[in-house]
Specification:
By secondary structure, the chain is an all-alpha fold. It has 15 helices and no strands.
Length: 402
């Protein structure tokens, strides 16, 4: 062990009958009961803890919009109108403290408006929903300035704005945001990546390259894997020619950065095989690999994705905690992604075992996050994951996976 994770105490799947699911992948009533009880318990704990949370943090990542997104998710999982009302309360709270600065889903105004728009839409408040969507679209011109200092990554950059547009269309229907908006953002992201590759003189190795604060990050939060994951999405309307000539060789460049263990470095050039998080390491890179496999039908990507799940299984019960950005719940999502691709019960088993770990929330001696009740660092993210476990075949990593 590297000191960052606990030894995995669970046996891996051996094909035998599981107490958590049937031979056809249906969760057992007993396991669902455990999940539902823990969700209720953690929600009460979270609500109490949020009374002392930062009143000015509106972000999806660590603030009120993230709590609104959790309740929106719970309203969909349970069909509960009370959850939708709670979502509205938190979204309205968020709307009072914008920073008029960042254009991304996770850390900027765009995410707040997108989450609020969907909640208003579901509550039948069409005018309020449209007002929020229009606020998002007003940011488009800022995103399209190539000479601005805006990065291209997910948390603070253009891809974070792109996800916002995709999120709105997912909930409203694909015509809400015209496809040209997504296409234009992808075009400028590609242009930016080509410029950086040319500047670094690595076009022959990787036709696209990106940086954040002077580093070439690899994972989905700040880096290459997240950007390429979106550029390969059908709903982003990148031409098949560009996907083949620019995106695929850039994906292949990332895959050859893999450590012998199957893990990936946080940055290009970092030789330390340490981090096994969604934000840095194999549990986040897997989404790029799965998408590459879907698009290119090349078994090498599937094999590399399977290695990511092995790393997560062995080193994914993190001492950092139970969160989704850098915790056990976030690492468990890679099992669900692989399960939904392959329908191999091994991956459902692994996800259920990580859920069991989260059912013992707070009992392992993990560190307490800076924002202990937030969506990406804290308890809200774990609740989101446990709710996703109730319907594993529809589970998607929040605020990231399409």
């Amino acid at each position: 062990m590297d000191g960052r994770s606990y030894p995995n105490p669970y046996p891996d799947y051996n094909g035998e009958v599981s107490p958590a699911f049937t031979s056809t992948g249906q969760l057992t009533p007993d396991f669902k009961h455990l999940l539902n009880n823990k969700i209720r318990e953690l929600l009460q704990h979270m609500e109490h803890g949020l009374k002392s949370a930062d009143p000015s943090d509106f972000t999806v990542y660590t603030g009120w919009s993230g709590i609104a997104l959790l309740y929106l998710h719970l309203s969909e999982v349970y069909g509960d109108p009370l959850c939708l009302q709670k979502a509205k309360e938190y979204a309205t709270k968020s709307l009072r403290c914008l920073n008029k600065r960042d254009v991304t889903f996770l850390c900027g105004d765009a995410g707040l408006y997108a989450v609020a728009s969907v909640i208003f839409h579901k509550l039948g408040s069409a005018q309020e929903a449209d007002d929020c969507v229009n606020r998002v679209l007003q940011m488009h011109s800022t995103v399209m300035k190539l000479d601005s200092r805006l990065p291209d990554e997910l948390l603070y950059g253009r891809v974070g704005y792109l996800y916002t547009l995709l999120f709105i269309n997912k909930h409203f229907g694909d015509g809400k945001i015209p496809y040209q908006y997504m296409q234009q953002v992808c075009d400028i992201v590609i242009q930016s990546g080509e410029n950086m590759a040319a500047h670094r003189r690595i076009q022959n190795l990787s036709p696209l390259m990106y940086e954040w604060y002077g580093e070439h990050y690899v994972g989905p939060a700040h880096g290459l894997a997240g950007i390429y994951y979106y550029l390969m999405q059908a709903t982003c309307y990148v031409s098949s020619e560009k996907i083949q000539s620019l995106v695929r060789p850039s994906v292949d460049y990332v895959t050859q950065l893999k450590f012998p263990s199957g893990n990936y470095p946080p940055c290009i050039g970092d030789k330390r095989d340490l981090l096994v998080h969604w934000c840095h390491g194999a549990p986040g890179v897997i989404y790029m690999l799965i998408q590459a496999y879907k698009v290119f039908k090349d078994e090498r990507y599937l094999i590399a994705a399977a290695q990511c799940t092995d790393i997560s299984w062995h080193r994914g019960l993190l001492k950092k905690g139970y969160g989704i950005c850098h915790g056990a719940a976030g690492n468990a999502y890679c099992f669900l992604a692989m399960y939904n691709l392959t329908h191999d019960l091994k991956y459902l088993h692994r996800a259920c075992k990580f859920a069991e770990w989260c059912l013992d929330y707070g009992e392992h001696g993990c560190r307490t996050p800076d924002t202990p009740f937030s969506l990406f660092e804290g308890m809200a993210g774990t609740i989101y994951f446990l709710a996703d476990m109730l319907n594993p075949t529809t589970a998607k990593f929040p605020a990231f996976e399409i």
